[in-house]
């Protein structure tokens, strides 16, 4: 049975929950490295602290996809229960994250946060395929990207905005600034409320053949179904996987190292090392008093540290705001494609290739950017981000069994998390140091990776995947 075409606002409502999901991702991607540095992490240790996030995705996504494929309730729907569970856990974690008293607690909460975001996110991708006819798939994923762009821009600017409203972005050594704490609290609220909006405004439709669905559900087993899905993985999905590998290696590099790289190279305001200003114990860790405040060598050193840390925090806010520009340009990218795809077909392959190459050039431009021109780098990166969030999924949804959409979307996530795991386990540090020791070279590495991803689109030949 042919699915009915949905209006713009129906697609908007069913995708609105992505606003909250992206608040979570943007705060995580833009400010977790700042939190890690504040709690004492060295720059080269930061990618390793992110390892829990992609490892979680590798495990959670296929399981959630499988469970949502095999769930149906006339009252609660098919995908919506997973939206809600993930949103509740993510919102609680976002609230407590900036209150982390130690580095290991922040790293553990990142694991919980990424798990819960994954629980909410992948069923949203499957919902587009569930409800939209083939002719509207590109449009559906592009509208999701439009909402994601809005969320990225607003969330990335939150610490800067709340600071401008009078909430301090300064704090004692080892303490997260109030501006970051308030931003994460706002993110927690938006995450939950936007998911609830989609749940209450979107009605899921039952499987086309409910009796057959229930019989298949009884016979299904996760491991055999997983192995069968891996065996049946279409060639287009494998080729898209290669593109995703290089794309997400680039963006993981940005999320984990752009804050220290840009505050250092573009703003010339690196995070000061408190060990150079404080009294140290036998393990060469800063001594603290009964109130857990750093004991400085003297009043002059305390004053010097706080002055440099203030400059760093101001630079970090500006880097966060500049980062939000890629959400804004991805939103513009999605908006243009939304209007165009309402009446016209597009060549997904060439749009994706051009977008990724432009993003790669944006990363390379960071090496030459000034505080005034950094936004141009993120504008270019936004084109690639907008395409990454829509084109691969549109191409994939035209190539796989619709009855296994959740499982296949979950497996597709392997091509997202595996490069991130490789990057976190030392891939970033090893490769960028082949270019040079300066942390900005990590952004050059991201640019090279994204350009390779763009060129890999030439391997896509399936006409159904390309045109939509």
UniProtKB/TrEMBL annotation:
Q: Any transmembrane segments, and where?
A: 12-36, 48-68, 80-97, 103-121, 141-160, 180-200, 240-262, 318-338, 350-368, 374-396, 408-432, 438-460
Location within or outside the cell = Membrane
Against InterPro entries, the record matches this protein to: MFS (IPR011701), MFS_trans_sf (IPR036259)
Q: How does it sit in the membrane?
A: Multi-pass membrane protein
Q: What is its main location?
A: membrane
What are the entry keywords? Membrane, Transmembrane, Transmembrane helix, Transport
* Domain of life of the native organism: Bacteria
Q: What is this protein's name?
A: SLC45 family MFS transporter
